[in-house]
C-alpha cells in the first residue's frame, strides 16, 4: 500500500523514538571490557617433584610393659592397698591373701618333719647297735641289712618332710603380693573380701613411660612394612607429631579383618597418654607429583584454587583438586601442570584479569623454594 507524504511523516515520528530507545537499551546491556588492575605479587613456578607415597592407619597408644597381677593361692583378699591410678614401685606390697589355711598347712608340715626327724634318730640308734653286733658276728648279715634299709627309708621320709615344709613356707610368702615392676595401677578387678583364685588377675599395672603405638595394616601393605622402618605418628589430643620406629610386625593376620598387628616406639611422647587415639603414616614408596604451599590456595565458594599467571602476566582463577598436607604444603591431584606460574602471595587481593607484576623480579620454585626460572619434571 502506498502512503501519502503526510501519512509517511506521521509514521516516522512515531517509529523514530522507539528506535532510539532500543538503541539506547542495547548500548546499556552491552558488556564493556575493562583492563584489570596492576598488582604486585610474589610468583611461584610450579614444578613436578618426587613425593613420598604413604599409607595411613589409625591406632591406639598402649603400654609396652603391662603386667596382670594374680594370686597363686586360693583365699579371700584380706587387704588391697592400691586403687586405679596408684603409682607403685618394684617390690611395693599390693595386697595380702588370708593365710589361715596356709598357716595350718605349715603347722602340719612342721609336725610331720619333727616326726620324721624323731624316727630317723631312733632308727640311727638301732642301726649303730646292730652294726656292732654284726661286726662281732652275733647277728646274721640279713638282720643288719634290714636295719640299714630301715635307716635309708627313714632318711628319705625326712627329706620328703623337709621338702614339704619348704613348699608350704614358699606358699606362705605368696600371701603377700608385691609389684614386680614400676608403674601405675590401671585396672582393679577385685575388691577387699573377694575370693582370689590362682591365675585370675586381680590388678593390672602398666608403665606409662614406655608408650608404643598399636595399629593394624591391610594385607596388601604388610609386605612393605618391616621391623626398623620409620613412620610419622600424630596424636591430636596431645598436639604431638613425632617419628616412630616399627618394633614388631605380627606375621599372623586376623582372618576376619585380614589385617596385621604392628607396634612402633615413639621418639617423643610429650603429653601423650596410654589409650589415646593416634594416626600413623607408613612410607610405602614414592611418586611424581606437585606440591605447593598452602598459603597459595584461594577459596571461592568454598572450593580451593589458585591464580594462574599466563604468558602476558594476566591472572586467572583455576579450581584445583587437592590431596594430602605435608609440612605446610598441599598435594595437587588435578588442575596444575609443572610449567605454570601461580600467585603465591600479594599485597592486595587478586582478581581474574589483574595484571601481575613480580614483586622482586624473580620467582620461587615450588619444589625447593629457591629462586628459579622454573622447570618441568617427569609426567
Please provide a written account of the structure.
This protein is an alpha+beta fold. The chain has helices at 5-29, 100-135, 141-173; strands spanning 38-45, 49-63, 66-70, 75-80, 87-88, 93-97, 176-178, 183-188, 195-196, 201-206, 211-218, 230-235, 240-249, 259-266, 277-293, 298-300, 303-309, 315-319, 321-326, 329-334, 341-346, 355-365. It folds into four domains: 38-51 and 288-365, Beta Barrel (conserved putative lor/sdh protein from methanococcus maripaludis s2 fold); 56-64 and 209-286, Elongation Factor Tu (Ef-tu), domain 3 (Beta Barrel), CATH 2.40.30; 71-97 and 177-208, RNA polymerase II/Efflux pump adaptor protein, barrel-sandwich hybrid domain (OB fold (Dihydrolipoamide Acetyltransferase, E2P)); 99-174, Orthogonal Bundle (Helix Hairpins). It is built from three helices and 22 strands. Strands 1, 16, 17, 18, 21 and 22 form a six-stranded mixed sheet that branches. Strands 2-11-14-13-12-15 form a six-stranded antiparallel barrel. A four-stranded antiparallel sheet has the order 3-10-8-5, with no helix packed on it. Helix 2 packs antiparallel against helix 3. Mean pLDDT is 81; it is low at 10-34 and 369-379.
Amino acid at each position: 500500500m502506498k502512503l501519502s507524504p503526510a501519512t509517511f511523516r506521521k509514521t516516522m515520528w512515531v517509529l523514530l523514538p522507539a528506535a532510539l530507545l532500543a538503541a539506547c537499551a542495547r548500548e546499556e546491556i552491552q558488556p564493556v571490557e575493562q583492563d584489570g588492575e596492576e598488582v604486585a605479587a610474589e610468583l611461584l613456578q610450579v614444578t613436578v617433584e618426587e613425593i613420598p607415597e604413604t599409607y595411613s592407619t589409625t591406632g591406639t597408644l598402649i603400654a609396652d610393659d603391662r603386667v596382670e597381677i594374680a594370686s597363686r593361692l586360693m583365699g579371700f583378699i584380706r587387704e588391697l592397698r592400691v586403687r586405679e591410678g596408684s603409682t607403685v614401685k618394684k617390690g611395693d606390697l599390693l595386697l595380702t591373701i588370708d593365710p589361715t589355711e596356709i598357716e595350718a598347712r605349715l603347722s602340719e608340715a612342721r609336725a610331720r618333719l619333727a616326726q620324721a626327724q624323731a624316727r630317723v634318730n631312733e632308727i640311727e640308734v638301732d642301726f649303730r647297735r646292730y652294726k656292732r653286733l654284726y661286726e662281732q658276728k652275733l647277728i646274721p648279715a640279713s638282720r643288719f641289712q634290714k636295719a640299714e634299709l630301715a635307716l635309708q627309708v627313714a632318711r628319705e621320709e625326712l627329706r620328703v618332710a623337709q621338702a614339704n615344709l619348704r613348699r608350704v613356707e614358699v606358699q606362705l610368702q605368696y600371701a603377700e603380693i608385691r609389684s614386680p615392676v614400676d608403674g601405675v595401677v590401671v585396672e582393679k578387678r577385685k575388691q577387699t573380701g573377694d575370693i582370689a583364685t590362682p591365675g585370675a588377675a586381680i590388678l593390672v599395672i602398666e608403665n606409662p613411660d614406655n608408650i608404643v603405638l598399636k595399629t593394624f595394616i591391610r594385607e596388601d601393605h604388610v609386605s612393605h612394612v618391616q621391623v626398623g622402618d620409620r613412620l610419622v605418628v600424630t596424636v591430636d589430643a596431645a598436639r604431638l607429631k613425632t617419628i616412630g620406629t616399627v618394633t614388631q610386625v605380627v606375621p599372623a593376620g586376623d582372618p576376619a579383618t585380614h589385617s596385621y598387628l604392628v607396634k612402633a616406639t615413639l621418639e617423643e611422647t610429650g603429653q601423650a597418654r596410654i589409650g589415646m587415639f593416634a594416626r600413623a603414616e607408613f612410607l610405602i614408596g614414592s611418586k611424581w607429583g606437585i606440591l605447593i604451599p598452602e598459603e597459595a590456595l584461594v577459596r571461592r565458594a568454598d572450593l580451593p584454587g589458585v591464580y594462574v599467571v599466563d604468558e602476558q602476566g594476566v591472572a586467572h582463577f583455576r579450581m584445583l583438586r587437592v590431596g594430602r598436607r605435608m609440612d605446610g604444603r598441599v598435594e595437587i591431584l588435578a588442575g596444575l601442570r609443572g610449567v605454570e606460574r601461580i600467585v603465591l602471595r600479594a599485597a592486595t587481593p587478586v582478581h581474574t584479569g589483574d595484571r601481575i607484576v613480580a614483586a622482586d623480579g624473580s620467582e620461587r620454585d615450588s619444589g625447593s623454594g629457591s629462586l628459579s626460572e622454573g622447570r618441568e619434571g617427569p609426567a
